[in-house]
Amino acid sequence: MSLTGWGGRAPTWPVTMAQPGRMFTNAKPLERFLLYESRTKYYLVGHSTCRTEWYVLQISRQEHGQVHCDSTCYTENQMKSLLASLTAAMDPHGGIKLVMRAYGCVGVIRLIRNAYLVLVTHRKKAGNIAGHRVYGCRDVAYVPILSKEFLNHGDLSSAAGRHAGGHGLGLNTYYKSINADEKRYLRLFMGVDLCKDFYWSYTYPLWNTLQQNLTLEREGVGNSSTVGSVSGFSSMFVWNSHLAGHYFGDGLPSLERERWMVPLVHGYFGQVKLSSFGKQLKVTLLARRSRHFAGTRFLKRGVNELGQVANEVETEQIVEARLDRDPADPAAALRLSSVVQLRGSIPLYWHQETSTSLNPRPEIRIRRYDPSYSATRRHFDRLHERYAKPVIVLNLIKSFEKRPREMILRSEFAQAVDYLNRFYYRDKGLARGEARGGAGVGHGAGEGDEGGPAAPTGELLFVHWDFSKCTKQRGVNVLGAISPVVESALRSTGLFCCVPRRLSRQNCGGKRAPSSAEGEDEYDWMRQSGVLRTNCIDCLDRTNVAQFAYGLGALSRQMVALGVASDEAGQAEGLWLNPRSVAATELMDMYEEMGDVLAYQYGGSEAHSKFFKRQKGSWEVTTQSKDMVTSFRRFYSNTYTDAARQAAINLFLGHYRANECDVPIWELESDSYLPRLYYDDEASAEWKRGAEEAGWGDDQEGGGGHGAGEGGRLRNLKWMRWHEETMKASKSAAFSSIDGILEHTPMRVSGGICDFTSISAEEEDASGAGRRIQQMLDDIDRLESLESLGALDSEALARSLREPDEASKAAFESYV
User: Do the beta carbons of residue 12 and residue 520 sit within 8 Å?
Assistant: First the structure.
């Protein structure tokens, strides 16, 4: 396995990825920094790699928030003269001296008394994407900004005196308490280890997918149909957005912020070189953790009011191939392909109590009843905006348990998707799709996409697969069992691919994008439209296996699309790599490593890897003992250390601000007291404003998404009848999985819900529930037409349905 690319020279091809400077912006990134200090100021000097452009940033050491950014571009000699002049001017006060050298500026964190400048003093190369180098942190420095002179004699003294007097404390006693709390906050902030699993690139927007980056470059920022972020600090995947912006305020404009700060992406980065059929290719696996609703395993579950889910991770698999090398232009043969998938907690209001016993399975509780599933709807609306249609939900939790636990969420999640498909997307999906030109503005949508809006049956496809029951059956091939889901999802969403036009693209499985600029006719572009969203309870162990299966199926298609593997029989859609091949083994190692890294970040231990160990032929006894140790580590972490880790994340992301809160963060019972975590996110506010302007947000404030007036009452009436029937069905239905023979059974899709289950003949009452529900919906549709003619009082009808008696039933039948 190698972490190096094919050299430092960026490729030259129709899109301008090889241009120096960060893509999409006019601000060239600074890669080297020198920090000088004087008695009253810090001078942060930055320059580019070639040392032709130099800039300086002044930070006051006497008062918080006093920052001056000099936008003048200096040469190296001019900067030496400027520093010499500053040294001469400050000579009576000690001059200026060099404090340290750095490779990146992360931002500033403000605590109680002081603020700290976070600098990357040592870096490590993690790999490269299309010639753009990707780095990770090796060592980080925290530099206090305010000088000791100001802390002891400045304006803080009077403020401290007022605060201490109000609490009956002496000034010295208060200072000791503040110093202790300051040190504790700083240790807590350092609990988010920037030297582990944080990555950035000076020239490549790591927070966007490959498809978003190339589409933005190809179509232009203003005309692009993709939703990739031009500024990294507005992206949900950049974790230092608060550090890079809050302290500086207006002293550091957004354009200058792009120049001075490095956007850090948290997650996983892995890269490997492979050789297939004598042809070289490079596979990159990149996982981006969302900073929205981020936290630890038992403290962050489900969804919040804004539709943001816990443990949301975007996984991108990039394949680069260099074929038919041209000595005159070594980069001309570069071919790229990528596929994106998603994991995230079940978007419902649910939680688990942290277990104080050795019970690895705490009770699951629905903590809030949301009859209109408004938060679930907002979550899927976000996915449609980011990735376009379709959104395929792969649910891996259990279908049947003697003591209901996971199956509670399984039933509620299926009802939520069914409700949204019937009453939200059926009414609004087509109109919204037509308003956007039928193709959407998501991850893969574009004006050249084939097809149109989603079918009236719904915009969500819910696929349930009982992973646990499948793996417990002796001799079951897990990859073979899940292959129908993988093949169907890849056919539905396609993948992104950019190859020379002379290469056949009939098996790429994507949507072709038309050429829009001169010189781009030499390349064919296929786009991914839609995404596969996978979840289990923790989105760790079972999800890792499912994502590996999807990545393995995608790699087969990517190799054919790039011309690495032949497709003489035209069977690219059904082509699967041999799981025992070198390429599949290397890919499995990366997915296993990614699963361990994400499990440490969210759960506090490595992932359960029974499947991967079996694939490698490990001894069953050693696998079981390792899983037992993993369970103990998770128990210890969830019981004793998760609270501190959650507090560190909230402090790092700016959900809690030490200088603005009177109660220390370690004294809060939970983070539900932090409004920024749930309601006041600036990006979410911007998203909601855009949704309202587009006309596809909530129907009315506080209306639960049902609408207003007579139409709203009729929709409430529909929901009432639907919910009564689904409650009856959930009480009587008994599902038995047929995962063992899944590879021989075609998927059955009904109303946007696909379930690998069979219902026995004696459960006829349960199997007829769907027909009764549809009959009731048809009846309500007829009532709606009568309502429009003024022939029916909807409130009287709703009252009669809530209080059914013989007279009301007879009246209802007469109207129908």
Answer: no
